Amino acid sequence: MIFPRLLINTKKIKQNTETLVKLTKDHGIEVAGVTKAFCANNDVVQAMVDGGIKFLADSRIENIKKMQNFHLKKILLRSPMLSEIEEVVKYADISLNSEVTVMKALSTEATKINKVHGIILMIDLGDLREGIYYSDEVISAIEKIKDLKGIEILGLGTNLTCFGGVIPDKNNIGKLVNISDFIEGRFNLNLQIISGGNSSSIYLLGDDMLNKTNNLRLGESIICGRETAYGNRIEETYDDAFILEAEIIENREKPSVPTGTIGMDAFGNIPNFEDKGIRKRAILAVGKQDIDDSGIIPLDEKVIILGASSDHLIIDITDCDTEYEIGDIIKFKLTYGSILKAMTSSYVNKKIL
Ligand SMILES: *Cc1c(COP(=O)(O)O)cnc(C)c1O
After folding, report:
1. What average pLDDT is seen over the chain?
2. Is the pTM of this model over 0.85?
């Protein structure tokens, strides 16, 4: 066994997917399963597929490329780089777009190899990440791309909460629905996909505006069993499909406050310490290169996380009922951000259950 190790329970991922597919289906919404947090690991992808998702979606073309054995339509979530157009047309069926220049390049490349690439035009409803800011610019963009060969406008989408923290509601989702109705009338287009956001839209299921959309792109809710507008747990899902195991390499009693003049830590921050006297401290062989130390939750509730540097995680085990020893393994649940880091770190061993 090699530590640190990430245990991945694909049965739990399948169950989480089934729950979300059912929840959304009841409102006429199909799920694009978002695979980026686990780098499109094919065993986890399979669990999502078994759980009933309709599309596979990822922001990286490398991950889309890894999923060619799966026969669902693949959506590239991040606007293509001009430098990757060839691969995008080759490996992705659909991409999210907001730049006419990019869509023209997709058109040229797709025409060249006799393909039709699907376009979901992204509308920025105020969160200020990707998309054409909602205005007449949306109309003029459609005018410029509607007759291009090799691409097909499949629909519209929006992304909220990820950057500006804006929560989906009647008002902003209503704007998406109105723009979509207007475009269909004006250009005689049939928009097949209206993608109403990510895991932050789940709390809104059943709302009359969200009911007029038909697609959600779900990552965190499937992986962690959590909606992301308010951070609430979703019933009938697991929050521990991913578990991190790390090994104790030092186990000593030390004061709780450093000795000497305090400058900056390894990451340029000035640390702050509370004096609790002499404490039992353990060091685990895992660090910021592998996880986000503010995004890991010990299964032993009496373990206190003190902090981490690149390769060391320091914990306080004074209050624990277990007498931990060198070589023992401490287990953690992970937030979405920590799963992303652990999956991406080549130093973390991945074990599929
Ligand atoms: C990552 C991503 C998602 C998934 O977001 P979750 O909050 O994990 O559900 C959806 N859409 C886009 C454009 C993304 O980049």
Report:
1. 97
2. yes
pLDDT of residue 270: 86
- CA proximity to 297, closest of 327, 336, 269: 336
Tokens 């931990």, residue located:
324
pLDDT digits (tens, 9 = 90+) for 224-269: 999 999 999 999 999 999 999 999 999 999 999 999 988 888 888 8
Under DSSP, the state recorded for 294 is: G
Cis peptide before 255 (omega within 30 of 0): no
d(CA 212, CA 221): 21
Here the tokens at position 171 are: 């008002």
Structure confidence at residue 263 (pLDDT)? 86
CB distance 63 to ligand 1 below 6 Å: no
Top mutation candidate among 217, 230, 335 for ligand 1, by most atoms within 8 Å of CB: 217
Helices marked H in 51-94:
61-65, 85-91
Q: Quick check: 80 and 87 in contact, CB under 8 A?
A: no
Nearest protein Cα to ligand 1, atom 15: 77
Dist. CA 58–CA 35, nearest whole Å: 5
Q: Which residue in this structure is represented by tokens 């026969």? A: 71
Tokens of 309: 């540097």
Instruction: Give me the pLDDT at residue 272, please.
Output: 85
Task: Confirm or reject: Cβ of 29 under 6 Å from ligand 1.
Answer: no
Ligand 1 neighbour 340 (Cβ under 6 A): no
**Concatenated DSSP letters of 225-241:** SB-SSS-PBPTT--S-S
Is the distance from the beta carbon of residue 218 to the nearest atom of ligand 1 less than 6 Å? yes
Structural tokens at position 221: 């809710």
**Positions marked catalytic:** 36
What amino acid is encoded at 281 in this protein?
R
Q: Quote the pLDDT of residue 174.
A: 97
Tens of pLDDT, residues 258-289: 999 888 888 888 888 899 999 999 999 999 99
The parts of the chain modelled with pLDDT lower than 50 are none
The encoded tokens of residue 136 equal 């007449």
For 180, what's the count of Cα atoms within 13 Å in the CB-facing half-sphere?
28
Whether residue 278 contacts residue 259, with contact meaning beta carbons closer than 8 Å, is answered with no
